[in-house]
Amino acid sequence: MNLKSIGSIAGLVLVVFSSTAQAQTYSAQCPIAGRYSVSGTNPNSSATYHGQATITSNGVGCYVKWAPPNNSEGSGSYVSGVLTVHFALGDYTGVVQYTHMANGTLSGTWWTDTAPNARGTETLYPISLAAPQ
After folding, report:
1. Nearest Cα residue to 98 out of 16, 2, 28
2. % of residues, the chain, pLDDT over 70
3. pLDDT (tens digit, 9 = 90+) per residue, 3-56?
């Protein structure tokens, strides 16, 4: 897989889910659960990618599923307005870290475990959010 494909990693990281994916679930551990549109850039590139992501509660934190341009998923924690997710995309693993902005977007930076100093960016824009239960 080349870096262009990995760039979709952010898409992978955040290009979560199509409309037929898992239901959005809210919890105190994952108060940002919902469906998001994704826009990002690969490390060392100005080329952008787009997709969707779904964030759900997994009981102890948040589970993220990204969809087109590739399918990836990961789990992580939401603490003090920061979502940190460890993701997998094929043979690649990495981390994406998002800051929850006042307007509801999640502004993030991501990297792979094999190239931790090469950083991509990714922003998640809320489409629909899960309601508190």
Report:
1. 16
2. 80
3. 444 444 433 333 333 333 345 576 889 999 999 999 999 998 888 999 999 999
Q: What distances in angstroms separate CA 65 from CA 44, 51, 102, 115, 117, one per listed residue? A: 24, 11, 23, 22, 24
pTM of the entire structure?
A: 0.80
Name, in order, each residue with C-beta under 8 angstroms of 56's C-beta and a sequence gap of 6 or more: 22, 23, 24, 25, 30, 33, 62, 63, 65, 130
- CA-to-CA separations, 85 to 9, 109, 110, 112, 133, in angstroms, rounded: 12, 11, 9, 12, 23
Tokens of 6: 């990995």
Handedness of CA 102, 105, 10, 50 (dihedral sign): negative
Which CATH fold topology does 3-129 show?
Answer: Lipocalin (2.40.128)
Question: Quick one: which H or E segment has residue 5?
Answer: helix 3-14
